[in-house]
Design goal:
This protein has seven helices and eleven strands. It starts with 9 loop residues before the first strand and ends in a 20-residue tail after the last strand. The strands form three sheets. Strands 2-1-3-4-5-9 form a six-stranded parallel β-sheet, with helices on both faces. It has 240 residues and is of the alpha/beta class. The chain is 35% helix and 19% strand. Helix 3 runs parallel beside helix 4 and helix 5 packs across helix 7. The longest helix is centred in the middle third of the chain and has 22 residues.
Length: 240
């Protein structure tokens, strides 16, 4: 009879109370890992560095699923550059052997968006830190499609770009991040996406139908933007 050998790791998850962080903690604990769930509520502040040394002590890997509370250009850039700098410094001092971060598919091809520019800056700090790393780039979370539709609504019209989107359930994102944390560092990035690539028009139609909304009209507008970014057909989906 073959025995399955499970190697328990100590993994610190920063941003552990968010949508993805909560699920990452669940996945890692279910697999028998020793998980430190770090967040502001547990006394860990990535902007000041408070609590990071204790949270990372003895950790084999760090999972960074933090997110900025603001999408405005100055604050979002400040958040991701400051948090990444503090995290790589603390991880380096603690001897952490693997830094795993969650990012976005196509992030480096959409410079119009302040949020995307900030995520690119975050990735750069991690990649240049000298710590072995893996960046998991995910397509948009399925749970946020209603919010996307709201962001594109003007009066009674939902103005969507002529492009594709590939919603992925948050649980699948968390599972992929958890697998990355216990695997060898990529020293690069991997793309993950939902099972279907659909048009923004279809996404909006599904969202309105799901919510019983018959008051809004969907308009495909080549000039419509995605959180400030002009998008091409395949800007937000995984490569073929």
């Amino acid at each position: 009879m073959t025995r399955r050998i499970v190697h328990c790791m100590k993994i610190t998850v920063v941003g552990a109370t968010g949508l993805i962080g909560t699920k990452v903690v669940e996945h890692l604990k279910a697999d028998g890992n020793d998980v430190v769930a770090a967040s502001r509520s547990s006394g860990v502040d990535v902007l000041t560095g408070e609590g990071l040394a204790d949270a990372l002590a003895g950790a084999d890997a760090l999972v960074d699923v933090t997110n900025s509370p603001s999408f405005e250009a100055g604050p979002v850039m400040g958040f991701f550059t400051t948090s990444a700098t503090n995290l790589v410094d603390a991880a380096g001092r603690a001897g952490v052997a693997h830094y795993v971060a969650l990012s976005i598919v196509g992030v480096d091809g959409l410079p119009d968006s302040a949020y995307f520019r900030a995520k690119v800056a975050q990735e750069k700090i991690i990649a240049e830190s000298g710590i072995p790393y893996s960046i998991v780039r995910a397509t948009q979370f399925a749970e946020f499609t209603d919010e996307i539709v709201e962001s594109m609504t003007v009066a009674n019209e939902v103005r969507v770009p002529d492009a594709l989107i590939q919603p992925i359930p948050a649980d699948q994102v968390a599972s992929a991040v958890g697998r990355a944390a216990v695997a060898k560092p990529l020293n690069g990035s991997v793309n993950i996406g939902g099972p279907y690539q659909i048009t923004f028009e279809q996404m909006a139609r599904d969202a309105l139908g799901r919510n019983g909304d018959t008051t809004r009209t969907i308009v495909v507008d080549p000039g419509a933007r995605y959180f400030g970014a002009a998008v091409a057909t395949r800007s937000l989906v995984t490569p073929d």
